[in-house]
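Incident log, support desk, overnight shift.

02:14 A customer reports that sequence design results differ from what the structure should imply. Their input is reproduced verbatim below. On-call engineer (initials T.W.) acknowledged and began investigating.
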């Protein structure tokens, strides 16, 4: 009996504590009462009392474990969203925007390999003028540009090619909570981030990270 009590204490201490809903608590209490009210086994009054106690205690432990597991699973399944940092959320938004751009008709609002055509297109459509460079000699031909919406504001997006792949370069004005510069990988995609001249740049693609870093080098020369 002492071992069972110690085990119960250990399980109770190890499990996270979550607040069950009123309906769930009411159901658990009612089921406990039903268990207590079941017919007791034959024997002395002490034996019947002990049997009722252990039947009720065992049911409550099982119910508690079930409730903790169920509620813990529900809270845990939301953890990547509720506890994610702004950088995590931003990374997810950037990848979603990149994937969305690859759908038919979503990649470009202005289709041109001529930077003199793409750059003026952004005038009046966004509050910044991204540098539109011809990088075809470095292996990154300009495909066009578009407007996108990331992190609660409109951004300029430039599309470049890399063999059979697409690189999206998202540009907006940098802020005080700017993410650190660097290279990142998430969900099978690579991202490279840098800031320059008060602007924030994010290059996103499924190309090799070395290719994406070579793109950054070519773009920032």
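02:41 Re-run completed on a clean worker. Output:
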């Amino acid at each position: 009996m002492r071992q069972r009590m110690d085990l119960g204490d250990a399980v109770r201490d190890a499990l996270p504590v979550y607040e069950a809903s009123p309906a769930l608590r009411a159901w658990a209490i009612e089921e406990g009462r039903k268990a207590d009210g079941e017919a007791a086994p034959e024997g002395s009054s002490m034996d019947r009392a002990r049997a009722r106690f252990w039947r009720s205690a065992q049911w409550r432990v099982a119910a508690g474990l079930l409730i903790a597991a169920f509620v813990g699973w529900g809270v845990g399944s939301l953890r990547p969203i509720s506890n994610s940092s702004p950088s995590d959320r931003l990374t997810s938004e950037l990848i979603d925007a990149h994937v969305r751009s690859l759908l038919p008709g979503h990649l470009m609002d202005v289709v041109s390999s001529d930077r003199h055509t793409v750059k003026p297109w952004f005038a009046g459509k966004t509050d910044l003028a991204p540098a539109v460079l011809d990088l075809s000699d470095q292996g990154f031909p300009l495909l066009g540009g578009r407007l996108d919406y990331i992190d609660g504001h409109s951004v300029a997006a430039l599309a470049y090619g890399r063999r059979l792949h697409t690189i999206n370069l998202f540009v907006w004005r940098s802020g005080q909570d700017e993410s650190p510069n660097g290279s990142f990988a998430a969900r099978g995609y690579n991202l490279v981030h840098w800031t320059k001249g008060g602007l924030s740049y994010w290059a996103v693609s499924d190309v090799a990270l070395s290719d994406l870093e070579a793109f950054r080098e070519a773009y920032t020369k």
